[in-house]
Design brief:
Layout (H helix, E strand, L loop, with lengths): L5 H15 L15 H13 L1 H9 L10 H4 L7 H5 L18 E4 L9 E4 L1 H17 L8 E5 L7 H15 L4 E4 L5 H11 L5 E6 L1 H10 L11 E7 L5 H11 L4 H4 E7 L3 E5 L2 H11 L2 H8 L7 E4 L5 E6 L2 E6 L5 E13 L1 H10 L4 H8 L10 E5 L6 E3 L2 E3 L1 H8 L8 E11 L5 E9 L7 H18 L1 H10 L6 E5 L16 E2 L3
Parallel strand pairs: 3-4, 3-5, 5-6, 6-7, 16-19, 17-18
Antiparallel strand pairs: 1-2, 7-8, 9-13, 10-11, 11-12, 12-13, 14-15, 16-17
Length: 508
């Protein structure tokens, strides 16, 4: 790959450099007990990774001037464009060498051309430790036979392979865990549930949230009773609401959603970076009861973020201008990497203070609900869906979440799968409108009455959750109403099962 010129990069990063010197407010900023690992990683990468060494030189940064985490904030963030794609591929690796064995995975390419990341065995070990923590903290028996069914795609993407490797390592450590990897092949998943699962006392389903919902919803149609098993769920790749969690746990008979479900914040870039914990889920549920507290903690109340905890020695997070920066060691180490996600970092002290301000005593509530506090010392990160996972209507942002919530309602869920795709289009008069393409359940059709009822409910919830939309609807009237399009189950136009669901498609 071609290197961008020092002059071009220096000019483009001057403003970023200035912004990075600002620090979050003392109340919100996470200060770990030992910030040295990130600074040590910076110096090691600056010495031993050719691309980063040149990047710092181009930006006019002398590594010798950086000795604290605050000083590290003066280093311009790296991105795919200014770093990963700007230097020779091999120069992104330790020692500039590809001769060391690596496991390769690809980004999904949802925001452009896929990029291939290599990871070290250390990343696999860290992921295994996090999955082990989930297993040990769950209500599953630690001695009964357990079947892990990996329902993530098993191709070039990280989710399936990393999950398989994590649970395989748990088995090698003596835990009673067996793993099968049908991926997103529903027929094979149902075969495993019908023929293999009955030999095991416990099941862990691991997969993309909408796909797990498919399995849960369609199991009965396949003649499978999942409630006969003790089940835990590992999700990843997408945020979801507590209403979604309750839907899944109720269907499966899971009694403790705090300990027996986990959503992972992970990427091909650095593997398993942060995960939901019982404490993180509990906090999000508590905050959801107080909209003002929720807004003070997380900013937006239109979207629900994933709230997770992370191990700073594995991966560390910073927030800059509402964007997350990550640092972590792998085969292709990353320092202050702008991954493209919106969010921020929080300390437990700050969370407790905000909740107390709004009438919630976190410590007291935790004791009453018997929420484990053994991970309280770990910092928190919250992450929203990317801006490219929303569409616009007359300049305002429309996020998939409100439509998802509506489709989960008991009135509609027997007829629709919960999958949909949003598009912003223009009619013959060049007026803008929102099109919602909705997937029907197998052999179900949408009557005119059903469509009208669903549209009315979507509009009601959009007005309730999105103040800007409410104002727009008051101004435009019927022109602000979405147009619903219904598609047969698994129609390849918008609902192919071999790729992640595209909740939003941007107009050309």
């Amino acid at each position: 790959m071609k290197k961008t010129s020092p002059r071009t990069r220096a000019a483009s990063e001057t403003s970023a450099k200035k912004r990075s010197k600002s620090t979050p407010s003392p109340a919100k900023r996470v200060v770990s007990r030992d910030e040295a690992p990130t600074v040590r990683l910076f110096h090691k990468v600056a010495r031993e990774v050719p691309a980063y060494k040149q990047y710092l030189k181009n930006a006019g940064i002398k590594p010798a001037d950086i000795s604290t985490r605050d000083e590290l904030r003066a280093v311009p963030p790296i991105t795919k464009d200014n770093y990963l794609r700007a230097f020779a591929y091999k120069d992104l690796f330790w020692g500039g060498s590809l001769s060391v064995p690596h496991v390769m995975t690809s980004t999904s390419g949802s925001t452009g051309e896929p990029f291939y990341f290599a990871r070290s065995a250390k990343v696999d070990e860290q992921s295994a430790l996090i999955h082990e923590r989930f297993f040990l903290q769950s209500s599953l028996s630690k001695t009964d036979s357990t079947l892990v069914i990996v329902c993530f795609g098993m191709g070039v993407w990280i989710g399936g392979l990393l999950t398989y490797q994590a649970f395989e390592l748990l088995g090698k450590r003596g835990h009673p865990i067996s793993v099968i990897t049908p991926g997103i092949n529903k027929a094979e998943i149902f075969k495993a549930l019908r023929l293999l699962a009955p030999h095991y006392k416990q099941i862990i389903l691991a997969g993309y949230p909408p796909f797990i919902k498919d399995i849960v919803d369609e199991a009965a149609e396949a003649g499978i009773s999942l409630r006969k098993h003790r089940i835990a769920i590992v999700f990843a790749a997408e945020a979801f609401t507590e209403h979604f969690r309750d839907y899944i746990t109720k269907k499966l008979g899971i009694k403790n959603p705090l300990t027996d479900t986990m959503n992972i914040y992970g990427t091909a870039d650095l593997g398993t970076m942060a995960t939901e914990t019982p404490l993180a889920i509990f906090i999000r549920r508590l905050a959801g009861q107080k909209p003002e507290a929720f807004k003070e903690l997380f900013g937006s109340i239109v979207k629900t973020p994933t709230l997770a905890q992370y191990v700073p020695a594995f991966t560390s997070f910073e927030e800059e201008d509402g964007q997350l920066l990550i640092s972590g060691d792998s085969a292709m180490p990353l320092v202050r990497y702008a991954i493209g996600d919106n969010g921020g970092v929080l300390s437990l002290a700050h969370i407790s203070a905000v909740l107390k301000k709004h009438g919630i005593n976190l410590s007291k509530e935790m004791k009453a609900a018997r929420v484990p506090s053994n991970l309280a010392q770990l910092p928190f990160v919250y992450v929203y869906e990317r801006k490219d996972l929303s569409t616009t209507l007359y300049g305002l942002q429309i996020y998939p979440e409100t439509i998802r919530e509506t489709l989960l309602e008991e009135t509609f869920s027997p007829f629709v799968t919960g999958r949909f795709t949003l598009l912003t289009k223009f009619d013959d008069n060049h007026d803008q409108y929102l099109e919602i393409n909705i997937e029907m359940r197998h052999e179900k059709e949408a009557s005119h009455a059903f469509s009208s009822h669903l549209l009315a409910e979507i509009i009601k919830n959009l007005k309730l959750k999105n103040g800007e939309y409410k104002e727009l609807a008051n101004f435009l009237g019927s022109r602000a109403e979405p147009r619903l399009m219904f598609w047969p189950h698994e129609d390849p136009m918008y609902f192919r099962r071999d790729i992640k669901q595209r909740w939003v498609i941007k107009s050309d």
